[in-house]
Amino acid sequence: MDRVGAGGVLGTFALQYGKAMGINCIAIDAGEDKAKLCKELGAVAFIDYKTSPNIAADLRATIPDGLEAHAALLLATHEEPFQQAYKYVRPYGTVVCVGMPGQALLEAPVFDTVYQPSTIMLQ
User: Fold this and answer.
1) Is the pLDDT confidence value at 1 over 70?
2) Which residues span the domain enclosing 28?
3) For range 55-66, the mean pLDDT
């Protein structure tokens, strides 16, 4: 499972739950301090969104079968991850949006949603 906003309060809580449940969590956040914290809390990999040229490709590279994540838990406080999540969740995967920014839009190209359908849950 991919976790966006991994180094914050909710993210670190989710990583610990994921580890306890046996889920392979891939954390997405920014900075060496967040990378260290996320790995200490159980993330099997960390992707720095500020330095990654292609988050989806970097995420696939961390998954043994080379596919996308089964699910994404979005805890970010800005809109961009909500626009990108469908790119790194495999077909019929699940995107769970927690705490969306107030005026954010959730958009995805029609072709991509047909080619790679997924479930989007808003919490």
Assistant:
1) no
2) 2-122
3) 89
